[in-house]
Amino acid sequence: MAEHTVNEEEKNLQEEAVNEQQAEETAENTENTEENAAEANTEEAVSEEDKLKAEVQEHKDKYLRLYSEFENYRRRTSKEKLELVESANERLIKELLSVVDNFDRANANFKEDMDAKAVHEGSELIFKNFKTVLEKFGLKALETEKGDDFDTDMHDAITEIPVPEEDLKGKVFDVVEKGYKLNEKVIRFAKVVVGAK
User: Fold this and answer.
1) What is the C-alpha separation between 137 and 182, in angstroms, rounded?
2) What is the CATH T-level fold of the domain 140-197, as seen in this structure?
3) Which of 10, 66, 101, 168 could form a disulfide with 163 if both were Cys (CB 3.0 to 4.6 A apart)?
4) CA–CA gap between residue 35 and residue 39 (Å, rounded)
């Protein structure tokens, strides 16, 4: 019986040793698994970080290209606008040259003994020619007469004066300077005297 007990104790010791060894191996495997998982997570994190960096760089490149294209577009349109204004002025000046030519002809034909009526008729023709050129480019005089209602969209009141008649109060009493529109936009308000209320 003593032998049996010793054998059992040896067996138990061997089993405990095997269990301890298995526990150590399991612990090592767990550590290795954790290390492998940590390494995998680190690799995944590095890989994810690289992807994000590449994506950020791609967006940055796109932004720079778009910004550059927009700046080129802005410069090009500014240049085109400037050229358009210059060419519009060129057309107007070319048309006004005919008026200048008429003044030159009138001055060349002016004689001291000419009567005032002939001079007046000549200047009247030149003035009509000048107005026609301006109207061709969209200039229109604002029709403002004495007795019209005062309109802040077309008139600039330079002063108010007391008026003798009640119905002239708040109305245009006198037109000091004509107003003008260029293609439906008022470019100069008519300067008027308004009847005081």
Assistant:
1) 8
2) Nucleotide Exchange Factor Grpe; Chain A, domain 2 (2.30.22)
3) 168
4) 6
